[in-house]
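Moderator note: this is an archived Q&A kept for reference. The question asked for a predicted structure of one protein chain; the sequence and the answer are reproduced below.
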Amino acid sequence: MFKSKTFLYFLFALFVAPINLIGQHISLNYHESLFLAVIVGSALALVFKYILDCTIVFNRKNIINLKTFLTYTFFGACITPIVWIVEVMFLNIFGTVFMRDIGAFLGLALAYYIKYEMDKRYVFKN
């Protein structure tokens, strides 16, 4: 069974998904660039998730630490291809948008689990 830290980590991942989408929609109200909207939404979600993980999941007092934030961001960027690979695999194997979405969901779950383990061991280590 998952420990409470792991549960909170995944819960916060679910919490920041709408923040990402809200950021995208706000950006699209001012610019028509979907690329820019994805960057804005992702950046907003990243900052919120970092603050939640740092203060609540890993019980850190000093959240303003550039090295920790950059390491956290780097590991997030490293696991992103996992989501894409699983998503595209499901699309290619099953050939439907529904199964592509299932693949994206499974890829996200796997990626967040790997990210949690990396954060625990390397980013927020004691």
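Archived answer notes: DSSP finds four helices and no strands in the chain.
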